[in-house]
Amino acid sequence: MGEALANGWLNQGRDPAGIWVVEPNQKSARKLIAKGVRFYLAPDQLPPEDTPNVIIFAVKPQVMDEVVPSYARFASTTMFASIAAGRTIEYLETILGIDAAIVRVMPNTPAAVSRGISCAFANNNVSSTQREICNELIEAVGEFHWLESESQIDAVTAVSGSGPAYVFLLSECLAKAGIKLGLSKNLAERLGRVTISGSGELLHQSTEDVVTLRQNVTSSGGTTEAALSLLMSDDRLETLLYDAIQKAFKRSKELAH
Ligand SMILES: NC(=O)c1ccc[n+]([C@@H]2O[C@H](COP(=O)([O-])OP(=O)(O)OC[C@H]3O[C@@H](n4cnc5c(N)ncnc54)[C@H](OP(=O)(O)O)[C@@H]3O)[C@@H](O)[C@H]2O)c1
Fold first, then answer.
1. CA distance 83 to 76
2. By residue range, what is the domain housing residue 6?
3. Which of 157, 180, 201 is at the close of a domain?
4. 242 and 130 share one domain
5. What pLDDT does residue 48 have?
6. Which residue ranges have their beta carbon within 6 Å of ligand 1?
């Protein structure tokens, strides 16, 4: 996810020397290093005379305890943004100080192709100028929205953070159905994959609303209507997805601290 963000900024034409990557495993950062970003193996290697405008924590939540304290020395000058699931503003303030400017962001993996959607919540120390910087940085990898309360992050996590996995599962299900109906594995997988990606692109480019796009495929008495009569009867698919999303929502709340 951190690499996706950095690639978004590089694709926008930002100076690679202005992007500093801190990562204990040089191999993991090799593609970014090749593009000219400044690289450090540990935060104590950062030049003491330079102050970054923004520090983004893009490590796994369980690594945050080890990583965040090393950056507390920048708290009076720098805005912190964290994309770590479940790590609350309160958690970050406990380590970075209650005066630190902190933004909590929930992105999703289509950010890797600059088609992500991210939502964020900022604490009261984040200035309007810093919010603008945040808009610019995150819009480099897709759409961006500010949340009204931090608790909304759990719903965003359940819908769009985890959402790409639901869509990929749909692609897998389409492929499995094709195989059961006699198609080769290879062709069925292409049908699943290209149907999902093509539909996503149509949804992205079209000005029609999503219901109209669905209805455009559905002729009265035809094949699509036959399938939808099962998926939509008693809101079957909607209920199943809502139950699944509620589980993700509950888990996001459980993980928060
Ligand atoms: N993936 C998603 O769909 C998604 C969606 C929303 C939010 N997030 C959040 O984004 C964060 C990153 O997730 P990810 O999927 O991008 O994980 P990831 O692919 O494992 O990336 C984490 C990166 O952090 C590096 N790292 C490990 N220890 C470090 C340390 N001490 N200092 C600096 N870097 C260190 C890892 O290096 P190595 O490769 O060498 O281990 C890796 O490059 C997580 O907190 C997650 O909750 C992810």
1. 21
2. 2-157
3. 157
4. no
5. 82
6. 1-2, 22-25, 28, 58-61, 63, 66-67, 83-85, 106-109, 161
- Kind of pairing, strands 101-106 and 116-122? antiparallel
Overall pTM surpassing 0.85 (yes/no): yes
* Secondary structure letter of residue 28 according to DSSP: G
Query: Which residues make beta-bridge pairs with 103?
Result: 81, 122
CATH number, residue 235: 1.10.3730.10
Structure confidence by residue, pLDDT tens digits, 218-236: 999 999 999 999 999 999 9
Nearest CA to ligand 1 atom 32: 23
Atom index in ligand 1 nearest the CA of residue 164 equals 3
Supply 242's token pair. Answer: 């809502």
* Percent of all residues in the chain with a pLDDT value above 70, rounded to a whole number: 100
* Residue pLDDT, tens place only, 39-52: 999 999 998 888 89
Domain end position, chosen among 134, 157, 180? 157
Maximal C-alpha separation, the chain:
71
Separation of 64 CA from ligand 1 center, angstroms? 10
Q: Indicate which atom in ligand 1 lies nearest the CA of residue 27.
A: 40
Mean pLDDT score of the chain: 96
- Considering only CA atoms, which residue is closest to atom 14 of ligand 1? 1
Q: How far is the CA of 96 from the centre of ligand 1 (A)?
A: 20
